[in-house]
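Backbone shape codes:
***
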Amino acid sequence: MQSYQNMSDEELIAALRSGENEITDYLMDKYKSLVKKKAKALYLIGGETDDLIQEGMIGLFKAVRDYQPDKDSSFFHFADLCIARQMYTAVEASNRKKHAPLNSYVPLYADSEDSEGRNLADVLETMDETNPENLFISQEDREDFKRKVNETLSKMEQEVLSYYLQGFRYEQIAEAMGKEPKAVDNALQRLKKKLKGK
């Protein structure tokens, strides 16, 4: 291991290609701090920093596996790019999921029922994902519910709800909106009462 510290990354990759497989572990350990640093700068909806670190380590592994010394890039820059791409792909995937309207697991609506006695989670749940008719009806139900929410809530309450459904904590919502945490808490309490009737 000591001899590895005196070698450049490019020399290490060349030695790895010639059969010194333990170099992979050395490089993974060497660049783990870079992965952690990048993970702290990003936010993964519905995930933890550890999830981003795991994605970054996958990107780092791909860099070790795929780096070609004959290209005009150092291993450090190639690894940095691979780590960032892997993390951004994970963040983009989580951002796409955030647009799924009002997921059924949100406890905000767990006890609410509409005038027909249906639980709101049941309204949003697709009965049969392979049936286009059910998908269309489910989409109409979601759109109708979203319209009712927009008509019922104030602009601030809509914004608070949006952040809340993305997994933000009170303090984070308050900071993002430039409000006091108590104002955010009050808005959440108001919108819960309003939505119980919907």
Q: What stands out?
A: The chain is about 70% helix and 0% strand. Residues 24 and 64 are 7 Å apart (CA to CA). The two ends are 64 Å apart (CA to CA).
